[in-house]
Design brief:
globular, Rossmann fold, Dehydroquinate synthase-like, alpha domain, two-stranded parallel ribbon, alpha/beta, 18% strand
Length: 331
């Protein structure tokens, strides 16, 4: 089930309670790190059950989703059940996947509590889990009833998590809003920028819900980024998704320059901008070690990868080529 991507923002408890009015079978699935948000919702909304998740990329698996579905079954959750995901992208991805498969599909909505989830991961109906260390290899398109955005729930977010979310925000503005991109580099107030980034993504998703065309633009920085994350996990090293995407966008800008799609200087600009935002810019691994993971990327088809290459803030181009061709251009 796809449907339209619906973004709602406003005052936290009043709006959430209003959105859930009339729902008689609500189950909250929450990241244990933000139990306080789930607790406040449970006080304002009649909740039938609540399930806490321990979240990490290593636990983002089919086993975890199966355990969640088993909890729903033990709670006698019917096909009228409504899941409310409260947490970051891992929580919203797994809750959405559970909603897609439990009793052949039930409804759900997202209350993302990280900046990364508010501007990217919780928007658009992509759900899923990792398989053998590769990102989101199992999943389904399942559009949430709504995604509720509120900067208020970010107040306990660690600084590193916030910076990682800023990487995804900058990515979105690189796709289609040069002015917002520059504003985000020095902003101190975030609600309007969060809403703007979410609107850009929602507009793209609504044009192409299942990624047959324009939605692929949202993968800017992600082909490199997912490979960087995979290599980090293989080595037991700690690189956040947003950090990997930041490094991936730098590599995408370099590839754009090497292919002559944009004048020299874009990579240097993005590098300076990202450094000022506290984001890493240097990939710590040789590109050759990333090639295998990029070839296994779920977006690859018949050996070709759709590379999203920036031309300037607010403008990108999609280029299809093999991983080998891209590596040859970058050497």
């Amino acid at each position: 089930m796809t449907g339209e991507c619906k973004i709602v923002s406003g005052s936290f408890l009043r709006e959430v309670a209003s959105l859930l009015k009339g729902e008689s079978e609500i189950y909250v699935v929450y990241d244990e790190n933000v139990a306080w948000v789930a607790g406040e919702i449970a006080e304002a909304v009649p909740v039938k059950g609540a399930f806490g998740l321990e979240t990490s990329e290593e636990l983002k698996t089919l086993d975890t989703v199966e355990a969640l579905c088993r909890q729903l079954m033990e709670a006698d959750a019917s096909r009228k059940a409504f899941l409310l995901a409260v947490g970051g992208g891992i929580t919203t991805d797994m809750t959405g996947f559970a909603a897609a498969i439990y009793k052949r599909g039930i409804r759900y909505a997202n209350v993302p509590t990280t900046l990364l989830a508010q501007v990217d991961a919780a928007i658009g109906g992509k759900t899923g889990v990792n398989l053998d260390g590769y990102k989101n290899m199992l999943g389904a398109f399942r559009m949430p009833a709504f995604t509720f955005l509120c900067a208020e729930v970010l107040k306990t977010l660690p600084e590193r998590e916030f910076r990682a979310g800023k990487a995804e925000m900058l990515k979105t503005f690189l796709l289609g809003d040069a002015r917002a991109y520059e504003q985000a580099l020095t902003a101190t107030e975030w609600q309007a920028l969060i809403t703007r980034a979410a609107e850009i993504k929602a507009d793209i998703v609504n044009q192409d819900p299942e990624e047959h065309g324009i939605r692929a633009k949202l993968n800017l920085g992600h082909t490199f980024g997912h490979a960087i994350e995979h290599e980090a996990r293989e080595r037991g090293e700690d690189i956040h998704h947003g950090e990997a995407v930041a490094m991936g966008m730098i590599l995408a800008a370099r590839l754009s320059e090497r292919k002559g799609l944009t004048p020299k200087g874009l990579e240097a600009k993005l590098r300076a901008d990202f450094k000022a935002a506290g984001l890493p810019t240097e990939c710590p691994y040789p590109l050759e070690t990333l090639a295998q993971a990029m070839e296994k990327d779920k977006k690859a088809a018949a050996g070709l990868v759709k590379w999203i290459l920036p031309l300037a803030p607010g403008q990108v181009e999609m280029v299809e080529m093999t991983v080998k061709e891209a590596m040859d251009d970058l050497r």
